[in-house]
Amino acid sequence: MNNLFTSGGFVMWPLLFCSIISLSCILERFFYWAVIDWHNKNTLGSIIEKFIKGNNDSIKFLKKNNNYPLARILIGVNDYKSQDSETFHLALTHSIQSTLKHIKRFDNLFSTIITVSPLLGLLGTILGLIKSFALLDLGKGDINSIGVTGGISEALVSTAAGLIVAIFTLLFASYFKSQSNNHISLIQEYSSKVELINKNNIN
Question: Residue 131: which H helix or E strand, with range?
Fold first, then answer.
């Protein structure tokens, strides 16, 4: 395994760095979405109900579950419940936008790794081929076959490594993007319900 890594040339090090960062972010996102899925199944209705009641115990309950985006949004607008509808709407919109940063966390990083990894693999391919051609002396009969095959091996290994990192990251990034889109739709649905309920309570 070590020989395979070293045969890919120096571009294997930035590819290894990209793979470690990608894997770390993927694990974090898995845990994050596991928590959200649990809340969707177990506390979603309770969170809306507690917000409507608005007593101290309800606020404590929301803060206890502030790792759930909808609870965080409702905590952010709790102080505006008695305000007019327009003010409440602006507060709700601001709170949603602030929460979206957590939901879409690492999206740009995943996109960067997906883009850069194949380019690093391509760079390794070019450097490997340059090394191979540099060892070819067509005017002479003696050819350093070990050096030539080493350059070709570097080209192939680096290309494969770049594609593996990019494909691996792409698969999980697409899954997380699907999860975030679904949850954003859920947030918009329940935020509209909360806004209507609060408007009726004010009137």
Answer: helix 107-134
Contacts of 22 (CB under 8 A, 6+ apart): 110, 113, 165, 168, 169, 172
Kindly calculate the radius of gyration of the chain based on its CA atoms and give it in whole angstroms. Answer: 26
Half-sphere exposure of 46 (CA within 13 A, CB side): 16
The residues, ordered by sequence, that sit 6+ positions from 63 with a Cβ below 8 Å of its Cβ are 71, 75
70 is written with which tokens? Answer: 């909808």
Q: Contact 12/161 with Cβ under 8 angstroms?
A: yes
For residues 24 and 31, what is the distance between their CA atoms, to the nearest angstrom?
A: 11
* Tokens 């928590």 sit on residue: 35
Give me the sign of the Cα torsion angle 17, 18, 23, 29.
positive
pTM score, two decimals? Answer: 0.82
**Tokens 């101290």 map to which residue?**
56
Per residue in 26-58, pLDDT (tens digit) is 999 999 999 999 888 888 778 777 777 766 677
**9 vs 28: CA distance, rounded Å:** 30
CA distances to 11, 14, 19 from 122, in Å: 10, 13, 16
The tokens for 59 are 């606020």
CA pair distance 128, 149, nearest whole angstrom: 9
Q: What is the largest CA-CA distance in the chain?
A: 95
